[in-house]
Amino acid sequence: MSAKEPTAPFRAADRVSDVLARDETLVEVFVRHSAHFEKLRNRALRRAMARLVTVEQAARVASVELDVLLRDLNEAAGATSTHPVRAGSAPLGQAEVSTVPIPARRPSDLPEVLLDLRDDMRSGREPFSSIMAAVRGLENGQVLRLRTIFEPVPLFAVMAKRGFLHESRRDAPDDWSVWFWRGAPEHEHSGPERPPPAGTDGESGPTVHWLDVRGLEPPQPMVRTLAALETLPEGHELVQVNVRVPQFLLPALAERGFAFEVDESQVDRVLVHIRRTSS
After folding, report:
1. Which residues of the chain have pLDDT under 70?
2. What three-state secondary structure class fits 203?
């Protein structure tokens, strides 16, 4: 397909592999935004990286502006649309939600199991099966440490569904350390440290559930949050992760008997801590 032929626009939820499958010359747009994307020129490495990563995740890994990257990709591909392509929007028929868990602080007193994937990834070998084999062999009380050539953002949500928390660190442009460990009640609140809500144990605190709505268009953030609160167990806390203060949600919470605290101390997110008020 010609890059100049009108076509559907790329969106944040599209995988990098699908973008390049439509027009391989678009790799130059990625590279123009960040030298990090030079890896996409390597076909073998592309097989290990591009099909796992969405445009949104790639932008985050390379620290580039998602909206600008999408605009330039669509302009280069001759994509047209009657509607603006929003940063977190998904292809038609999909409900793409940012599911990347917020990094936690790993326990420093647990033994580590090291899995170095850097050579495999540079050779284009699929690392997922090796990771899952290591996870299956991980004993309680052990931490899995991965060495990778980029931050494996899609893996975070996969591991979170299996009950794992994570922490990542960039040691060099193509050298990352990522730790995974099984969550426990005392580690479930993995956001910024804050005083425990009134009426909870100051040492252990409540069980905290995270709901990231940054990739949703209104009214979905409010709908999803209220739906999650319907099944929130007594004594638990829900933390909504948003890009702004949800002005319409707050009065709805008060009407339904929920207490809330809005934390605007983070540069890239607003946290709304929600819990039931004492009857």
Report:
1. 1-7, 44-52, 80-102, 184-206, 278-279
2. coil
